[in-house]
Amino acid sequence: MERISYTSSKKIGCETMKPFVYDLTLDGWKSWAKEQGEPAFRAGQIFDWLYVKRASSFEEMSNLPKPLRTKLEEHFGFVTLDEITRMASKDGTVKFLFGLHDGHAIETVLMRHDYGNSVCVTTQVGCRIGCTFCASTLGGLKRNLEPGEIVAQVLEAQRLLDSTGERVSSIVVMGSGEPFENYEATMDFFRIINDDHGLNIGQRHITVSTSGIVPNIYRFADEMTQINLAISIHAPNDKLRSKLMPVNRRFPFEDVMKACRYYIEKTGRRITFEYALIGGVNDQPEHAEELADVLQGMLCHVNLIPVNYVPERDYVRTPREDIFEFKRILDRKKINTTIRREQGHDIAAACGQLRAKHMESSKR
Description:
Elements: E1 10-12, E2 15-17, H1 26-35, H2 41-51, H3 66-75, E3 82-88, E4 94-99, E5 105-113, E6 116-120, E7 124-126, E8 141-144, H4 147-162, E9 168-173, H5 183-194, E10 206-210, H6 214-223, E11 228-232, H7 238-244, H8 253-267, E12 271-277, H9 285-295, E13 300-306, H10 320-332, E14 337-339, H11 353-363
Parallel strand pairs: 6-9, 9-10, 10-11, 11-12, 12-13, 13-14
Antiparallel strand pairs: 1-2, 3-4, 4-5, 5-6, 7-8
Helix pairs in contact: 1-2, 4-5, 6-8, 9-10
Organism: Xylanibacillus composti
Active site: 107, 351
GO molecular function, one term: tRNA (adenine(37)-C2)-methyltransferase activity
């Protein structure tokens, strides 16, 4: 997972801006320090201020010489995430709606589990994949997020947890957008949060979910990381999958399965297949039977997701008994299966719902 990221300036939307301070990996900071004629240990000090002490300005970095702090101010900017809304669920889930510097908004979700605190991050403003059951695609794709804008979401959640002495223990890249269509930024994000000099979130505690961007599934396999891979399939065949997920016309189901088999063979790691159950659409016993046949012999796990009601979409929730029948069929066929535990149901915690409401109210 070797890559050094540093650019002197970049274009975000229509604006040319300084790089964000959270864009750089530790190696990126070392390269920048060398370029500036600074000793290599300064990179570690900067990284410590950003991720351990969680400084929010260069002035706070008191063990750095004043001229170096001035250079940092000239070269970099802090990510500004303006909290538009924060909603707290009775189950402890917290959903943030953050405003970005260019007027766009993104969502981040903090989920509390018995085994620790997980943050679900967003990698794009909007999404172009077009899944018909998801609110993230409403309004289409606006732009990719920079690595630092993804990192900043984790830091905002961590600052909330700091008040109770807790920490973020795991990350799921399952928020709005398709991370494998923002591949380089997503990989830099992983390098930054995984670094043991910073947030030190282990690779096995990170999961990335893709709708099946085939070339980057192969690419990710070749990275040989310990990061968990999840694939959104939501149907057992091409015809139904194309109806639910237009991306299937670009990357057909069979090609996605070939890429998944390559990943398993290359890494020896299990894949999670995410399957959103939609009432009367893809949740019938014959769908479960067909899915089990497709997945036979694969090192995999199926995560069944009862679809959230989205007012802008015309789908209904699968009845409880049908969900369990679907699981029983997969279990009987020896496919390891779980049903996702719902969190934040009372605060519109499904991807894109809060942002969609914000977009609608902004228009009014």
